[in-house]
Amino acid sequence: MWSRLREVFARELVVLVDPTSPQHARRRKQLTASVGTIFTLGMAAAMGVAPRSAFNDPGAPRVDEPLRMPDVRDQLDQLTDIDTDAVYVRQERMQRGDTIASLLRRLGVDDPDAQAFILKNPTARGLFSLNPGQTVQAQMDDSNMLVSLQANLGGDAATSRELVIERVEPAKADGTASYKARVQNVDNDLRYEMASGSISAGGFFKAMDAANVPDEIVQQMLSIFSGVIDFQHDIASGDRFRIIYEAGFQDGSFIRNGRVVAIELINRNQLHQALWFAPEGDSNGAYYTFDGRSMKRPFLRSPVEFSRVSSGFGGREHPLHHAWAQHKGVDFAAPTGTKVLATGEGVIDFVGRQNGYGNIIILKHASGYSTYYAHLSGFAGVQQGQRVSQGQVIGYVGQTGWATGPHLHYEFRFNDVPQNPLSIALMEAPVLTGKSRQEFLGYTSNMLSRINALRTYNVLTAAN
Ligand SMILES: [Zn+2]
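Structure tokens predicted for Murein DD-endopeptidase MepM:
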């Protein structure tokens, strides 16, 4: 695995060094865009330098060049002609409770044949899968008959699945119109958005809102750092973040957000950086630190989901940790119903009720580890013997058994001996040792020095 990661870094390095390399075109764009933006904007902001444009800078050099005007007489003639083939375009948003009839009416389409086609054609019925707020565009002729219709059915940031319904030309001999429908993949225009800010006394989610970080990007951020940071208890006022993420556009209109490609978080003066890498031919990309450690850890830092609801609960104090040697675990205060997550991949060893624990789940993990989740208000449909993945919801916070208020009692055991779960952050992802580590560090320091060079270059560009 390390030799492959090293190759990835080496390849990225080549791409950084040789911008004309035809290989990995998309990832080159991704990497240079993320690295470029992260440092350009960051440094420009830090230096208080705003990029200048020739329009607002009277000192900027101007270019005077004679312009040849196109001959527009033909176009003017066309505009003033009475054109019986005119096509009108209209766009509408799906509304809650919309039917095909009500949608077509709002679009200004009055065409029973088209309506009948959409209702019975399996592909065209894809329109029914649209959510309220999604847009539908229709072209119609001057008698309000449908010429074509497009709707974006979904996809990812880079690609959209577009439903196209078209009238077949020419019409049938008896004058009735026929239609056809297809779904096609359309490339979106992929852009890199940047958001940055700092955590204030208002807390994590207020800071994310203030920096206009979309919810799905916040969720990715929580997931990327879930092995190293307990957002409920570790995040502090003054922490800073910078995020670069993909966003897909069509004809200048926002379609949807994609993946976080680079992220930086300074938590209590400790710098965390992660980059997304998807090795060529491997769809399972992951987040890595600059020194080549996977961001993934065998266990999550917190067994309770951090959300807008739970974030204000129990303050920013550390989890109740009272004499855990006798207590055997750590108590995480959270509202009843908060999702409880399997902190590591494993098998359900016990699910049910035990005296003081109330409703409890015990998970068995590899290498002699096990975890206990107690006082649950309910189980998330899990059964004994079932395999669960890291981060999977297994139950809900409650106060069953001997509990005075809603909280999760969490135990972390090694060979059935309780351990302090707050110390498991020390379990880092595997890292290279000996000679191979030296080789690896050589590659990454080389890459970092080039990124530093890029940083300097971009600062100069922004300042000039
Ligand atoms: Zn407890």
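The chain has four domains: 2-47, 87-187, 190-288, 308-423.
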